[in-house]
TrEMBL record:
<dbReference type="InterPro" id="IPR016064">
    <property type="entry name" value="NAD/diacylglycerol_kinase_sf"/>
</dbReference>
<comment type="similarity">
    <text>Belongs to the diacylglycerol/lipid kinase family.</text>
</comment>
<dbReference type="InterPro" id="IPR050187">
    <property type="entry name" value="Lipid_Phosphate_FormReg"/>
</dbReference>
<keyword id="KW-0443">Lipid metabolism</keyword>
<dbReference type="InterPro" id="IPR045540">
    <property type="entry name" value="YegS/DAGK_C"/>
</dbReference>
<keyword id="KW-1208">Phospholipid metabolism</keyword>
<keyword id="KW-0067">ATP-binding</keyword>
<keyword id="KW-0808">Transferase</keyword>
<dbReference type="InterPro" id="IPR005218">
    <property type="entry name" value="Diacylglycerol/lipid_kinase"/>
</dbReference>
<keyword id="KW-0594">Phospholipid biosynthesis</keyword>
<keyword id="KW-0418">Kinase</keyword>
<dbReference type="InterPro" id="IPR001206">
    <property type="entry name" value="Diacylglycerol_kinase_cat_dom"/>
</dbReference>
<protein>
    <recommendedName>
        <fullName>DAGKc domain-containing protein</fullName>
    </recommendedName>
</protein>
<dbReference type="GO" id="GO:0016301">
    <property type="term" value="F:kinase activity"/>
</dbReference>
<keyword id="KW-0472">Membrane</keyword>
<keyword id="KW-1133">Transmembrane helix</keyword>
<dbReference type="Pfam" id="PF00781">
    <property type="entry name" value="DAGK_cat"/>
</dbReference>
């Protein structure tokens, strides 16, 4: 074992937390929770330094720089402690992984996470408490990192490469995220602390506006073409949209991604299929639902559609993706036998 690997796996190496805070996550709730979390860190007498996100995308730059400057040493193991939502975690993972991709001598820093966003789907998938104070207490008790799958894609059309902890969705979920995160309605509802209602409002908008589109799916099992796709989601774990079970048996330990394609032949048929997903998680048994579990998948779309990655807006484009699985060490209270 190399000195670096030893330092990374040893439980005895003194820990240092680089705390990445996005005060804007959770409609500003992270900003409100942060003073209490800071006090708990001080009380726990752990070594930490705070890095506040100053603009959208800043967390990626911070995590990338920290991966370069804080490589494990025999006398210090730095852990990136993310305080925010799924988007902040997404940016942190991308900072870490892009640094390692560009310099093979680097190892990925482990990521700890305290959920304080609005959706918190990753926290749900790893059974981390949604209460930031409880989650922090459990995270501080962790003694070693564990590696989980993360998704990775290359968008050939836009020469773009990205990593994701939750999912990448094109069509219906992409449209809801794009219109909600960008909307005046959300800002107005946030002002009266009803920001959570923005998603249901835009759900019905998307139900009327989202038309069926074509997608070509290529895996090592063969190629399929769907002419009436409405939702095409590649996911690393079961949840999207703040707790909706899109792929009930998706696992972050199987080295595979789950792809769910839902077709739309009429508004009522798609609404029924979506309702089965939300209420009973039984949508995958229906004829108009298609499910793949695969280490690699290529998705080629026929027209511009909205995309979302970990709840972040990707924009309306003609996507041409190759997906595969990468690995990321997490500093989280996971049990070995925990089903993930
Ligand atoms: N200083 C900042 N000012 C404005 N926006 C910021 C700033 N720093 C980060 N952001 C943006 O905040 C957005 C929301 O963050 P995040 O996704 O973590 O919270 P959320 O949307 O409430 O949570 P979830 O994704 O779990 O629903 C991200 O897109 C991020 O780029």
């Amino acid at each position: 074992m190399t000195e670096l690997a030893q330092a990374q796996s040893s439980t005895a190496v003194p820990r240092h937390y680089a705390v990445l805070v996005n005060a804007f996550a959770g409609n500003g709730n992270t900003g409100k929770a942060w003073p209490t979390i800071r006090k708990l860190l001080e009380k726990a007498a752990v070594s930490f330094q705070v890095y506040e996100s100053e603009y959208p995308g800043h967390t990626t730059i911070l995590a990338r720089a920290l991966t370069r400057s804080e490589q494990p040493r025999p006398d210090r193991q730095t852990i990136l402690l993310v305080i925010g939502g799924d988007g902040t975690l997404h940016q942190t993972v991308n900072g870490v992984q892009s640094a390692v991709r560009d310099d093979a001598s680097l190892v990925p820093l482990p990521i700890a996470y305290v959920p304080a966003g609005s959706g918190n789907d990753f926290a749900r998938a790893v059974a981390l408490p949604q209460d930031p104070e409880k989650a922090l207490e459990m995270v501080l008790a962790v003694t070693a990192p564990q590696t989980l799958d993360i998704g990775h894609y290359v968008d050939h059309r836009h020469q773009r490469e990205e990593y994701f902890t939750n999912n990448v969705g094109v069509g219906f979920d992409g449209r809801i995220v794009s219109t909600t995160n960008d909307s005046r309605i959300k800002r107005a509802l946030n002002r009266i602390h009803l920001g959570g209602l923005a998603y249901p409002v835009h759900f019905f908008g998307a139900l009327f506006k989202q038309r069926a589109f074509s997608v070509r799916v290529h895996t090592d099992q063969g190629t399929a073409r769907f002419q009436n796709a409405c939702l095409v989601t590649t996911t690393n774990h079961p949840f999207f949209g703040g707790g909706i079970t899109v792929a009930p048996h998706a696992s972050m330990r199987d080295g595979k991604l789950d792809l769910v394609v839902l077709e739309r032949t009429s508004l009522l048929q798609f609404f029924g299929l979506f309702a089965l997903m939300v209420l009973f998680h039984s949508h995958l048994k229906r004829k108009r639902a298609h499910h793949y579990v695969t280490a690699k998948v290529d998705l080629t779309f026929g027209a511009p559609e909205f995309g979302q990655e970990d709840g972040e807006i990707m924009g309306e484009h003609i996507y041409d993706f190759s997906f595969d699985v990468c690995h990321q060490p997490f500093w989280l209270p996971l049990r070995d036998n925990q089903i993930l």
